[in-house]
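Incident log, structure service

09:12 report received: a user says their structure output differs between two submissions of the same chain.
09:20 pulled the input from the user's history:
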Amino acid sequence: METVVVMMSTYNGGKYLREQIDSILQQKGVNVFLLVRDDDSDDNTVEILNDYANRHNNVSYYTGNNLKSCGSFLNLLKEAPVASYYAFSDQDDVWLENKLITAVNMMKQENATVPLLYYSNLMIVDENLSQKGMYFSEPLTLANKYSPLVENTCTGCTMVFNKQLRDLIIVDTEIGCTMHDAWINMVCSLFGKCIYDNDGYILYRQHGNNVIGSSVKTNKWHTLLSRIKRIFNRDLQPRLKNVTSLYKIYGDRLSKADLEKISLIVRYKKDWFSRLRLLADKDLRPENTSKLRFAFHILLGTV
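09:34 re-ran on a clean worker, output below:
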């Protein structure tokens, strides 16, 4: 059986942690090694991790300073042992027992020598695991390899990827990206192949303490306020930040055509002509979120 290293970042997750770890250890058809990094919790999370590590040879954990979600997961990726496949996990969900083997089987149908990224839909549930619907109500449209530059539809806890992609990502784990899942999705789309599965194998628990939750539970006024803040705070420009980092780290490996697309985003605020060029580019448009809102972000300089 193939070995999958599952990487989990924890932060004050004691309430649901045992249920999640149990569902990971009960995965069918694969060998699981669970590596956990605690992001400076002050509840009983570390006690729970210590208990599992003492009872299971395939569970290990370490602690560190608070790096937030993106930094903690990228640190895990760097510290993870060598394996054929890797996966990320949240601390408060429940996995169906066929989650990992489904991903591995789909990736085995592809060219194993290139970076491969599998990700899927999710089943939204409340804190008691009562189902509320699917994360994506309609199948995603994957228009072209440049789509992840302008929208992220890849949820980190669904991701399973091969060693080739892991080795490509860890060339620089001090990158200035907004979230690990968006970053890995962008890199794989340009250098490998992304595989989307519209079925869901995770009970994606939504509760009051989620670090990042689904749009199903998001307050509309809070969402509106966040978008307004982006207009006035020049640090809150996720697409520009991600693509600029991509350009700096991987620019010498990209084709001329890829660099031209990336440059449209990196330099779009240079003048109005540059903004209009980005606005007119048919490959750099979101397919699953609002095109109109993206156009406004271009004109306002808040991409």
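09:41 both user submissions now match this output. Likely a transient worker issue. Closing.
09:42 reviewer note: Residues 220-300 form one domain. The two ends are 44 Å apart (CA to CA).
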